Amino acid sequence: MKLIKLDAIDSTNDFLKGISATQELENYTVVTAENQTKGKGQMGAVWNSEKSKNLIMSVFVKDLLVNSDEIYKLNIATALAVIEVLKTFSIKNLSIKWPNDIMSDNFKLAGILIENSFKSDGSITTIIGIGLNVNQTDFDNLPKASSMAVVANATFDKDELVVLIVERLKVNFELLSTNPDVLWKSYLDLLFKKGIPMAFSIANQKPFMGIIKGVSNRGKLVLLLENDRIEEYGIKEIQML
Ligand code: BTN
């Protein structure tokens, strides 16, 4: 693993995207930053993180053995890698809120933003962005967020976490081609609020109740609705309230 440590940057994902366009990067080139001025979340959201407290990292990988239909599997492998590392630090009640928010009880500890570029030569480059709340303890403005420090009442070494997460990513990306069923089973076992009636919304429509049954083999959320129908929803279609 090649590690580039930055103090401040707009977004580690964008930084890595920029340098990968002009130079050949080794697989598992990693960029970390103490602070992001324009941290990106999913669906165009902003990712805020208190300066120096948390892990902000992006990992470059080229030509993982998935085709473009199976890109969502990278989300699964990455979410599991983060969970597996958190488990070793006794962070309790971990789950994955579909598609890839890392939760402890009802609080979000980490978010993942994976960006892929499809090159004209057929290759696919992937940038895996991970924001993990590590030592931040003040979440006054983010009532649904928490950190490892809050959950475990301890402080943690961010450098150690980077190494452990990258090691786990390597293992899980290998499993994607050798034994994906293992990853799939662990992911489904860890799904946040599986089997519990919850409110959902689809853009501009009134909320409705559904029960999470699982995730389809195309990465869609499978819900049992009140009319006993089973429906699948894509990432951009539905929100859990
Ligand atoms: C989300 O849950 O909305 C995804 C958050 C992803 C944040 C990380 S922090 C490192 C990397 N750089 C970014 O700009 N975003 C990701």
Brief characterization of the structure:
This protein is α+β, with helices and mostly antiparallel strands and 241 residues long. The chain is built from five helices and twelve strands.
Could you describe the 3D structure shown?
It comes from Flavobacterium seoulense. Keywords: Ligase. One of its GO terms (cellular component) is cytoplasm. InterPro entries: aa-tRNA-synth_II/BPL/LPL (IPR045864), Biotin_CoA_COase_ligase (IPR004408), BPL_LPL_catalytic (IPR004143). Its EC number is 6.3.4.15. Helix 2 packs across helix 5 (180-189). The radius of gyration is 18 Å and the shape is globular. The mean pLDDT is 95. Helices cover 27% and strands 33% of the residues. A hairpin with a 4-residue loop joins strand 10 (221-225) and strand 11 (230-233). It has 5 helices and 12 strands. It has helices spanning 12-22, 72-88, 148-152, 158-178, 180-189; strands spanning 2-9, 29-36, 55-62, 94-97, 101-104, 107-118, 124-132, 197-202, 208-215, 221-225, 230-233, 238-240. The protein is of the alpha+beta class and 241 residues long. The protein has 2 domains: 2-189, Bira Bifunctional Protein, Domain 2 (BirA Bifunctional Protein, domain 2, 2-Layer Sandwich); 197-240, SH3 type barrels. The strands form 2 sheets. Strands 1-2-3-7-6-5-4 form a 7-stranded mixed sheet, with helices on both faces. The protein has a 5-stranded antiparallel sheet with strand order 11-10-9-8-12, with no helix packed on it. Biotin binds at residues 11-13, 36, 39-42, 45, 47, 56-58, 101, 111-113, 129-131.
